[in-house]
Amino acid sequence: MMNANTSALGIVFPNSYDAWVPDLVNVRLMASIPFASRYRLIDFILSSMSHCDIDNISVMVNNNYHSLMDHLGSGREWDLVRKNGGLHIFPPFAEKSAKPYTGRVGALANILDFLRDEKEKYVVITDTNIVANIDFDAMIRAHIESGADVTIAYNEQKLPESLLENKSNDLGYYYTFGLEKGRIRKIYVNAKDTGIQNFSMNIFVVERELLIDMINTASVRGQEYFERDVLLPQLNKLNVQAYKHEGYIARICDMKSYFDENMKLLDDYNLDALFSGGPIYTKIRDDNPTRYIEGAKVQNAMVADGCVIEGEVENSILFRGVKVAKGAKVNNCILMQDSVVEAGANVEYLVMDKNVTITAGRDMKGTSTYPVYIGKHKTV
Amino acid sequence: MAKEMIAMLLAGGQGSRLYALTEKLAKPAVPFGGKYRIIDFPLSNCVNSGIDTVGILTQYQPLVLNEYIGNGQPWDLDRLYGGVHVLPPYQKASGSDWYKGTANAIYQNISFIERYDPQYVIILSGDQICKQDYSEFLKFHKEKNAEFSVAVMEVPWEEASRFGLMVADKDDRITEFQEKPKNPKSNLASMGIYIFNWDILRKYLEEDEADPKSENDFGNNIIPNLLRDNRRMYAYHFHGYWKDVGTISSLWEANMEILDPEHSGINLFDEDWKIYSRNSGMTGHKISAGAVVENAMITDGCRIKGSVKHSILFAGVKVEKGAVVEDAVIMGGTVIKSGATVKHCIVAENVTIGENAVVGAMPTESENGVATVGAGVRIGDNVKIGPNAMVRNDVEGGEE
Fold it and tell me: Binning pLDDT at 50, 70 and 90, where does residue B98 land?
């Protein structure tokens, strides 16, 4: 049981950075992109929150959210069916006064009444393009100890190439920090610096009352983005602290990073690092165990339940219910739920979305630098 | 509102012929088929047949079973009215009793059945692997205007004397019941699955209870009494896969038959008749480079670096480099260290098998026993466990 003085409610933005992975979000949003053979991206954030007794969570869906609603259901799998709190889903027009929004300020302005009515002292705000087992308890403790107004999580890493290459700001904003003894003194928007950066994870801890004040003021001024419009101009006035995430982290920034971050989990070291904390919960599908038929040859693969493998699989991630027929070869591929590789087909460097079928005898290849994506329900 | 039919599932049996596997849990809770427990089969059958009220009668070592069933959610049996209820013996104003027999277990829970005022009650047994549509069985019961029906399987005549047999006429009406007879008059074996009209069941349970000489058992008492009174009793022929997994060898065999769904008749890959279970919540399993996996069922959380052939692995099993697993059933959380050889055996949950240890052996003409290692046991490095062994305690060294 968490102390009332450190209790926090969670706010999750499932559509953030959708524009970075246009193929993958064609039939869904960032939060419901399948990852690591049986999960969706949002499972990591929700499970982390659940482990830290954050059990009053609002998901601010904006568009294309049917797949997410389907995935979350009542929130039972994450232990979020609670008499007090639990899982709330806020669609864009949840209230009469709600307005369309593009940034966090606009979104939060739409739920101010809800925020005012809640009891938790703190608010934790996150996106879903980050895969990590995050210790929110430690982050909230650090926030309290430092006396910060706002604490933002970051990790040290290079900026992904796709962000460096992209000259346009249309795809949204990302942030890097200039730090002074843990305090954020500079926020850089869409920086193009090479080398290790203090790369924002866009995870905030802030007192609920202060958040309400900030949103009130900002929305009166017509501001949209929290970091760019609210924090950046006030870094001298507000005590904005940085909280360094030391644990395993995967960021989905483009198709390449999606592919690579999945593949990295084929290394036991990475797999153990990501799953060393509490369990990651996800929607249960009640598949049977995976069946390897005589003649199957599998090397270096991560496989979920419900698959039937009769062919060869190497360096690949197989989601639930995948079928690889006799004589088929699967190399360096991500095969999402219920996709089928028929007899004698040969696939390499593909990201196959749900229910894709590669018909018998076909050859289909991408490359390690450019994995080819095949859309949901397509038959090749 | 009355329910048409509710199920009473007999899950109190100790399953003493499973020895080390049932030392700390009841037979229906024994793990089966990679991610299930035996009780998942009757429970899933109920749900798939449209039965939403199930009483589970427990007595022996109920802890694991109680926790596993929980609120019944994994089977969709968390219902506002009905759902699944675990029914252990309890203390009443006029004293308390253990369940004296199968019939007495139901008798002691008459008030539970009364709450739902059903027309029919189906009595199920918690130790069988079977996919059966109970709604088809009920349809038969109604068509025959029966008061009691029993599901039967045709068994080979030479094995018939091992079973409780129903002798029936052309119309399937039962004329005689033979319990393990020397000279069988029928080859229709009772599966221990009964449908009763509730009023008939109640009447005979009360009569049976009043008889101090009764063993309070369905087979020995209730069915003979129904026959004596010339009740409308019918035998319902079931033709699918059915296996009583009451012994080590039958449990091992039933597991192995899953690996051959095309011939054995038990198909767990049936989208129209899913078997539900409580999920382990582990991540997808991992087959490393250099591993060999052939003809096997593997589930979440497994890490395979060695060789796995013709085997069933439950959640979280680790097979280290150089280890060999063949013809084996390895239950959840067990670790098989490098160089160990595990063959033709059942290894229960959370066992550690040390480096270069040997457990079991492939069957030969003179020796075809299935070695069994009980839950939580540690088998030391280089230890050798023979093909017929039953290991209940840690083994530090030597042979057993």
Answer: confident
| DSSP letters spanning B328-395 | EEE-TT-EE-TT-EEEEEEE-TT-EE-TT-EE-----SS----EEE-TT-EEPTT-EE-TT-EE-S-B
What's the CA gap between A158 and A38, in Å, rounded?
28
CB within 8 Å: B300 and A38: yes
Q: State percent of chain B over pLDDT 70.
A: 100
Q: CB-based contact (8 Å) between B289 and chain A?
A: yes
CB contact under 8 A, A296 and B303: no
pLDDT tens, position by position, A70-113: 999 999 999 999 988 899 999 988 777 778 888 899 999 999 99
Q: What is the mean pLDDT of chain B?
A: 93
Beta-bridge partner residues of A303 = A318, B285
User: By the 8 A CB rule, do A42 and A61 touch?
Assistant: no
| Residues counted in chain B | 400
Q: Which helix (H) or strand (E) holds B228?
A: helix B223-228
Distance (Å) from the alpha carbon of A303 to chain B's nearest alpha carbon: 5
> How many Å lie between the alpha carbon of B202 and the closest alpha carbon of chain A?
37
User: What pLDDT score does A326 carry?
Assistant: 96
Q: What is the pLDDT of residue A2?
A: 47
Report d(CA A48, CA A67) in Å as an integer.
21
pLDDT at A310 over 50: yes
Pair A349, A372: CB distance under 8 Å: yes
Nearest to B339 by CA among B280, B375, B374, B384: B384
How many other β-carbons are positioned within 10 Å of the β-carbon of residue B171? 8
Chain B within 8 Å of A295 (Cβ-Cβ)? yes
Q: What's the rounded mean pLDDT across residues A57-69?
A: 94
Give me the mean pLDDT over the A21-32 stretch: 94
How many whole angstroms separate alpha carbon B192 and alpha carbon B8? 12
Percent helix / strand / coil, chain A, rounded to 5: 25, 30, 45
Helices (H), chain A: 41-51, 66-72, 104-109, 112-117, 136-146, 161-165, 208-220, 255-264, 268-274
- The minimum CA-CA distance between B300 and chain A, rounded to whole Å, is 6
Of A266, A284, A290, the CB nearest to B298: A290
Q: Residue B203 and residue B183: Cα distance in Å, rounded?
A: 32
Q: Comparing A253-262, B20-29, B170-179, which segment has the lowest mean pLDDT?
A: B20-29
Chain position carrying tokens 């506002």: B80
* B271 backbone dihedrals φ, ψ, rounded to 5°: -65, -25
**Chain B partners of A38 at a C-beta cutoff of 8 Å?**
283-284, 300
* pLDDT for res A211: 97
Are B35 and A289 an interchain contact pair (Cβ–Cβ within 8 Å)?
yes
B186 in Cβ contact with B270 (< 8 Å): no
Q: Is the Cβ–Cβ distance between B295 and B314 less than 8 Å?
A: no
Let me know if A5 is exposed, middle or buried by CB neighbors in 10 A (0-12, 13-18, 19+).
exposed
User: What mean pLDDT do residues A169-198 have?
Assistant: 93
Token pair for residue B304?
Answer: 């395979």
Contact A286/B276, CB-based, under 8 Å? yes
User: Do A290 and B275 count as a contact with CB atoms less than 8 A apart?
Assistant: no
Interface contact A303-B287, CB threshold 8 A: yes
Pairing of strands B188-197, A240-244: unpaired
Half-sphere exposure of B174 (CA within 13 A, CB side): 33
pTM of structure = 0.92
Long-range contacts of B94-98 (CB under 8 A, 24+ apart): B98/B59
How many CA within 13 A on the CB side of residue B122? 31
Q: How far apart are CA A121 and CA A143, in angstroms?
A: 12
